[in-house]
Amino acid sequence: MVEWTEQERSIITSIFSNLDYDDVGPKALVRCLIVYPWTQRYFASFGNLYNADAIKTNPNIQAHGTRVLHGLDRAVKNMDNIKGTYAELSVLHSEKLHVDPDNFKLLADCLTIVIAAKMGSGFTPEMQATFQKFLAVVVSALGRQYH
Amino acid sequence: MSLTAKDKETVKAFWAKVAPKAEDIGQDALSRMLVVYPQTKTYFAHWKDLSPGSAPVKKHGATVMGGVADAVAKIDDLTSGLLNLSELHAFTLRVDPANFKILAHNILVVFAIRLPNDFTPEVHVAVDKFLAAVARALSEKYR
């Protein structure tokens, strides 16, 4: 059972309430596809991912980035049961999407960097620690139903 | 995943922007590492003060970034260029190489904070590859 202090809860809700999901989601996904190009394997049907510019302007990637970030919302609203909240999504990523769970950490790292760029020095070491703890729980929950 | 000519150019060009803030960036990255990955504190039990921005953290952050600057200068042959540093880390410091990745991540986070417009995805991938290559060179002498 993951324990959250009051300060950690308030840091997470504060970070997410100040986010533009339509901006940060796509930016994080785009960054992941460029920095870790093998992750493009899951998006073969999305159209042109031939180079960085194509990835940045691809509308399917934009839409998907937003969708992924809204998916994180569920964890923000259910911090005391992220494991249960993501059980179905975990099965989906395993059985239907066949995503190697190591990729979740790659996207999480890119999201951390995008948020750091947005928040600047407001993203203190304490906020970084809390945010990375949150993402680690999400990543673990998403990998939970793999077998 | 070795460094292409383009990677090296990208790293050198980005480093020119980093250089004036290098000490500050080093101090911030090290501070973050100690807070976000508390297990890394085990290597610094001999310091009086491990808090962000403390004197030993500032000094060591500068030392580390000095090493990275050296690596940028020797980017065409990191293995032989960083030989002495590799021996230091292998025989004296004995830092578990998994920690190189951890510190690299925190350096990237600080790049994003301090140079948000320059740290584009294209620069990010080149710098990430570079820091991984540095880590490999530092691990050369381990076994």
Automatic annotation (TrEMBL), chain A:
Residues 3-147 form the Globin domain. SUPFAM superfamilies: Globin-like. CDD domains: Hb-beta-like. Keywords: Heme, Iron, Metal-binding, Oxygen transport, Transport. Pfam families: Globin. It comes from the Eukaryota. InterPro entries: Globin, Globin-like_sf, Globin/Proto, Hemoglobin_b, Hemoglobin_oxygen_transport. PROSITE patterns: GLOBIN. Belongs to the globin family. This is Hemoglobin subunit beta-1. It comes from Ilyodon furcidens (goldbreast splitfin). The lineage of its organism: Eukaryota, Metazoa, Chordata, Craniata, Vertebrata.
Automatic annotation (TrEMBL), chain B:
InterPro entries: Globin (IPR000971), Globin-like_sf (IPR009050), Globin/Proto (IPR012292), Hemoglobin_a-typ (IPR002338), Hemoglobin_oxygen_transport (IPR050056). Keywords: Heme, Iron, Metal-binding, Oxygen transport, Transport. It comes from the Eukaryota. SUPFAM superfamilies: Globin-like. Residues 2-143 form the Globin domain. The keyword Iron applies. Gene3D superfamilies: Globins. Belongs to the globin family. Involved in oxygen transport from gills to the various peripheral tissues. This is Globin domain-containing protein. It comes from Ilyodon furcidens (goldbreast splitfin).
